[in-house]
Amino acid sequence: QAGDFFMKDGSLVGKDVSLTADQKAACIGIVFWADDPTKDEHTPLVTGTNNTKNITLSTFGDPALKKEHSGCTHGLVVALKDAGIVRWQKTFASVSDWMDNRSTGYEKIASGTGDTAPVNKIRGYNNTKAIEAYNAECDDNNKVLPISCIDTYAANVPTPVGSSGWYFPSAKELSLLWRDINDIYMNKPGKIGKQDVEIMVNSSLNKLG
Questions:
Q1: Helix or strand run (H / E) with residue 132
Q2: Is 194 helix (H, G, I), strand (E, B) or coil?
Q3: Least trusted range by pLDDT, from 33-37, 147-151, 204-208
Q4: E strands in the chain
Q5: pLDDT on residue 21
Q6: Distance between CA atoms of residues 74 and 164, nearest Å
Q7: CA 85 to the chain's CA centroid
Q8: Confidence grade of residue 37 (pLDDT, cut at 50, 70, 90)
Q9: Are 184 and 41 spatial neighbours (Cβ–Cβ below 8 Å)?
Q10: C-alpha–C-alpha distance, residues 125 and 168, integer Å
Q11: What's the chain's Rg over C-alpha atoms?
């Protein structure tokens, strides 16, 4: 559940447990969403999206994550530290335009503003892999630079076998971590009366020091 401690061996320790020094040292992240991020359909109770209309959102899950890490069906974990701060690119080259002319196997990262648009879905893994594919083809001057921060962080904080590895969160994933937002563009709230995930995650971070 949200607030649980995610350990480097893939095990979980409950958020209410008083951690030992060894457990603190073995923790690499905090659970902030406990559901299947690869699942195509989620009810409004899970996603927050279309809550007032009571419509089930389809194609909500990350198809790339489902294809490449089919066992990653238990939730989302936030890293304990920022991966780094770096400018996005040296140029204004468009990853989205590049994808329009390629068959990458990944969902497009461009998005409209509707509440069922890609920006309102779990797409972090897909988006990161699409950017990695772009970086592999473009010249150094046009590369998306923060990818190197993820690579460095992953080398220093390896994830357990069976996980997806670290990746950029999508806007929807960030909203699930903070306060579930129904419509990212309009900043409309999602689930009403849910527990405050931000408070639980911050509480767990504080326990880690």
A1: helix 124-137
A2: coil
A3: 33-37
A4: 5-7, 12-13, 27-33, 76-79, 181-183, 188-189
A5: 97
A6: 11
A7: 18
A8: very high
A9: no
A10: 7
A11: 17
Does residue 112 carry a pLDDT above 90? no
Distances (CA, A) of 73 to 39, 40, 143: 8, 11, 31
SS3 45: helix
The single-letter code of the amino acid at 62 is D
CA 132/CA 180 separation, integer angstroms: 28
Alpha carbons 103 and 96: distance in angstroms, whole number? 12
**Residue 193: alpha-carbon gap to chain centroid:** 23
Alpha-carbon distance of 174 to 78, in angstroms, equals: 9
- Quick one: tokens of 164? 């997806």
Strand, coil or helix: what is 156?
helix
Read off the DSSP letter of residue 42.
B
For range 81-86, the mean pLDDT: 92
pLDDT score for 43: 62
The pLDDT assigned to 31 comes to 96
| Selection from 46-50, 113-117, 157-161, 195-199 with the highest mean pLDDT | 157-161
pLDDT digits (tens, 9 = 90+) for 38-68: 988 766 655 555 455 555 666 688 999 999 9
Percent of the chain with pLDDT over 90: 64
- Dig out the tokens for 97 from the structure: 């335009």
Please answer whether residues 11 and 35 qualify as being in contact, where contact means their C-beta atoms are separated by less than 8 angstroms: no
* Closest-CA residue to 6 (of 83, 72, 60, 84): 72
Largest CA distance in the chain: 53
pLDDT at 40: 80
